[in-house]
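ENTRY TYPE: paired fold submission
RECORD: A
CONTENT: sequence, then structure tokens
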Amino acid sequence: QVQLVESGGGLVQPGGSLRLSCAASGSIFSDNTMGWYRRTPWKQRELVAAITSGGTLNYLDAVKGRFTIARDNAKNTVYLQMNSLKPDDTAVYYCNLVQRRWGLQNEYWGQGTQVTVSS
């Protein structure tokens, strides 16, 4: 089985920064995509950023230029550096892992970490 453990959420003032981390453990395949989603009570879950094992990046338009996703393949860990945070970034952030092998795909989720941007 695969477990995703997130850390780094919290309360920050507008304009501030936070760094989220997500460590994956268990049976991790080499072909995978790790990413971050977020959800609020008034908005559907949305993809914030994702990075493939080959380094291909994908960002939500609203966070481009402010958020940076990176990964350490040796540690099976993905990071989300969030700068210039806005109140609209307030949400529960979920780590996501999609891995593929032998034509099969499996998806896993972290427990979620709260990010609150408020003065």
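RECORD: B
CONTENT: sequence, then structure tokens
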Amino acid sequence: QVQLVESGGGLVQAGGSLRLSCAASGRTFSRYIMGWFRQAPGKEREFVGDFSWSGGVTHYADSVKGRFTISGDNAENTVFLQMNSLKPEDTAVYYCAARPVGLIDFTFWGQGTQVTVSS
């Protein structure tokens, strides 16, 4: 059974940092793309960034580029989202997701972790 478990959310002041973790289990994820998404109250879920285990290639949404960094620990099957220079508009529930390489849709999702940035 595939499981993605996020952790590391919390309350932080604007300008601060948080690191989210996504622990993946249930299969070998080397042929998966790991993604981070977020959903703020009253808004649609949006793409934050993704990470490929092969070569560590990453992509980011323009809204977080230069502030957020995605990395992975292959041995621990864990993906991280380092968030720096946080802004109140980064407040959202953050979700980890996974999709097989070559497919468009993310097929596995975590339960989400709340990030709140106070002004």
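NOTES ON RECORD B: The mean pLDDT is 95. The longest strand covers residues 92-100.
STATUS: closed
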